[in-house]
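Morning!

As promised:
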Amino acid sequence: MATKLTCRRAFAPVILKRTFAWAQPRNGVENPNESRAKTAPGRPWNGDQLYLRLQKIAKQPFPRTNPHSFQSSYITKKRHTRNLIVYKAPESPLKRCTDPISTVHASQISLLDPTGARTRLFSKTNPECARVGDILLVRMRTGDPFSGVCINIRRRGVDTAILLRGQLTRVGVEMWYKIYSPLVEGIEVVQRVAKRARRARLTYMRKEKHDRGDVSNVVRMYLRQKAALGIGGAKGGKRVGGLGPVGGKKSGKGKKK
Amino acid sequence: MPPKAPLNWGLIPPSFLLPSSAQSLFPLIPLTQPYPQPSYIPIRTIKSTNKPRPDRFAYDSKRSPLQSSTSAALARKAHSTPLRTGALALKRGMTALYDPETGKRTPCTVLQLDRNQVIMHKTREKNGYYAVQIGAGQKKADNVTRPMLGHFATARVSPKRWVVEFKVRGEEGLKVRVGEAITASWFRAGQFVDVKGISRGMGFAGGMKRHGFSGQPASHGQSLMHRGMGSAGGSQGSGSRVLPGKRMAGNMGNESVTVQNLKVLQVDDANGIVVVSGCVPGPKYQILRIQDARKKPWPEGPMSIAEMASMASQTATTTVTAEA
C-alpha cells in the first residue's frame, strides 16, 4: 500500500534490495552484467561491485510500469515523520563520561591518597610495585601492625584490597586490607619475592606444604636494618605507603635470600 | 434496550375496537387497559446499585469513615507524595567511599542521569492528579511511532527512550517547565532518595532459591528428592487444599523493587553522576527511578531549574560521607 502511494506521489525511492531483474539502463549504459565487465575486466564476479552499481541505479525515479510483484522489492523512505519536527538530542553525559565509576574512583583517590604513594605501590605500570608473594607490613591507625605474605591483590580502584597471610600466636591468619582506607596508616614492602609468582592468587599457600608460616623474623630484621639506616624515622610508623627507595633496597634483600 | 411489555394475548382488545354489538355483552370492560409495568427499575450499569453496607469489622467510632472520592483519596496520600519530581538514571556499577575522618567505608552505587527532560505536566483539573512526565535517553525517530513523535515535538524535546511519570503533591511540583532538563544537581548530597527499578530476572527458580526453603537431606536414606519444597499442606482435617499464597517454585526476580531511604553521597552535575549509598535493583545499565524519599523529611532541594542552577553554582561538586 505504501509503495503504491509513493508511486503516485512520485517520490524517488531508495532501493535496498538486490533486484536487478527490472533495472533500467541509465543513459543507455548500465546493464549490471555489462558494467561488471567494464569495471573489472577479466576479474571474477564480485558481489560488492554489483552492490555499488545498484546503489547508483537507485537514484532513478520509481518505474511505474513494473508489475506489482516487484514493488515489494522497494523499501520506501519512512514518511511517518512528515510535517513533524524531530528535535535533535542534546549531548549525552554518557558520552562525556563513559566510565563514571573511574571518575568517582579518581576523585576519591585524590582525596585519600594525595601523594599518590599507595596508588604507585600497587600500580601495574610501576616495575617496583608490590606483587603477590611479597611480604608486606601494614600499619593501622589503631591497633597492631600486621605482616604477612601477600597472596591476593584485588584491584578495584578506590576499593582495592590486599590479602595478607601471616601468623598470630602460631595460628595461620589471613587479613584483608583496603589500601586506600584512612585507617591504614602505611604499607611497606618487607621482602620482595625472589621469583615472580606465576599465579595471580597464591591460594595454594594455604596448604601446609606451601605455607610460608611465620614471617615475624623477616620483619624484625627489616625493621632493625631500617632503624640502623635511619630511613623513615625512628619507629617508621609515620610513613604512608611503601615508597620507592625502601622498595628498591628490599629488592636487593630479596635477591640475597 | 428497555424491557418490552409482553403482548397481551389473553386480553380482550379495548372496547372501542370491539364491534358495537359486542359492547353490550361486555359493559364492564374499561376503556383503557393499562400496560403491565416491569417489576424492576432498569439502570444500565455494571456497578451494583445497592448502597455499600458498613463494614462491621473496619468500623471505628472515633474516626470518620473513609470518603470514596478521588479528592479524598489524594488527600490521604498527600503526606507520602513527594513535593517535586524525580528523575531517571542508569545504574553504572558499585564501589565504596571512605570518610576521611572516621575511616568508615560506605558501599555505594553510581547512577548516571541521561538527558532527563520534562515532557508534560499532568494536572488535577485535566488528568485528576498532579504529575510530571519525564523522558530520558535517546531513540531513533524511525523507531518512534508518529503519535509519540508528535508528543515529543509538542514539548520541543528529542525522542526519548524512556518516558515515565512522577507524581507530585500539588501545583508547586510543576515549577519545572515543559522542555527543561533535569540534571544531577536536582539531587543534593546528603538528602535521601527512594530508588525503584526492575530486579535481575532469575527465571523459573525452585523453592530453595526463591524462598530459602531448606530442601531435604543429602543422605539418611533420602532418595531422589534433595531440593524439592516438601509438603504443600495438610490433608483431610486441614481442608485437603493448598492455602492461597503458598510459597512455591516459580519465576524469581524481574519484578519492580523499591529501595527506600538511600543517602545521596555525591553529585557530579557535569558528568550526570549521582552516588547513592547501598545497592539498587537490577544489573548494570538498568533504568531506575530516583525520587525524594517518602519516609524522610522532604529535602530543601530545588523546586525549579532556576533554583537548581543557583544552588549548584554555590557548591560545584559536593560530597557527603555517610555517617552511621
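The two ends of chain B are 69 Å apart (CA to CA).

Hope this helps with the figure draft.
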